[in-house]
Amino acid sequence: MEPPQFCQLLTFPNPAANSRQWFYALHLVLGNYALVFLLWASLTGMVFALDWWSGAVYAVASGGNQQNPYAMPQALAKSSELKLTKLDTLYVVTHRESPRAVQFYNSLPATDSDVYRVSVGRERQSYYRTDNLYYDPASLTELTGQGPWAGRYQKASAADKLLRMTLYLHDGRIFGLAGKFLMFIASLIGASLPVTGLVLYIKRRKC
Question: Each residue of 52-103: pLDDT tens digit?
Fold first, then answer.
């Protein structure tokens, strides 16, 4: 069987063809249609799986800077007492600074050296735009954390914003419903390629 020409790689096969030609053409056609999307998903997914790849992406996006690991700041002074009045004040402060926020998530200190963490969601279904703020439990002084996810989204660097939105780039959510649909179809095609490839291998062994 001769390999198909380039124009045939993007043309669906004729169902009247023999089964081997059908699976061979189907394997190539679907694979070529989904190649860009699967490559996109692979490169963005490696950011979660491989630290060296994540660091390389950050270095390229930032112009050579090194990615800082995520770390919460420590309290200015250790205190084992949790005052409800401080929580009430913190609630007022954060809501006053972000009156149009759609979600507030408060994390209380687990130890006497931990701080309050307040995650402020600016938009619905847009987690990467969340502001992660830190406050000293005693004085409510705003502290600075480390890593791409720490601090306010608007003040983050371009490289930090890129890493924040990696998940949304990975599954197509950043492009809306159309992006999610395309990535879903591409994922199904990617899952079908080993099946059609195995069928071709078996048929070739029988010939």
Answer: 999 999 999 999 899 988 889 998 887 666 666 788 888 899 999 888 898 8
The CA-atom distances, in angstroms, between 147 and each of 22, 103, 123, 136, 201 are 51, 22, 21, 19, 47
Beta strands in 8-53 (DSSP E): none
Contact in structure between 62 and 55 (CB atoms under 8 Å): no
Q: Is there a contact between 152 and 160 (Cβ–Cβ < 8 Å)?
A: no
Phi, psi of 46 (to 5 degrees): -65, -20
Q: According to DSSP H, which parts of 123-170 are helical?
A: 158-164, 166-170
b/e map 161-182, b = 16+ CB within 10 Å: ebbbbbbbbbbbbeeeeebeeb
* Cα atoms in the 13 Å half-sphere on the side-chain side of 113: 3
The answer to whether 164 touches 153, Cβ cutoff 8 Å, is yes
Residue 6's pLDDT is: 45
pLDDT above 90 as % of the chain: 42
Instruction: With CA atoms as reference, report the closest residue to 135 among 166, 169, 97.
Output: 97
Q: Computed from CA positions of residues 7, 8, 14, 15, in that sequence, does the dihedral angle turn out positive or negative?
A: negative
Listed residue (124, 90, 122) closest to 107, CA to CA: 90
Strand partners, 133: 118
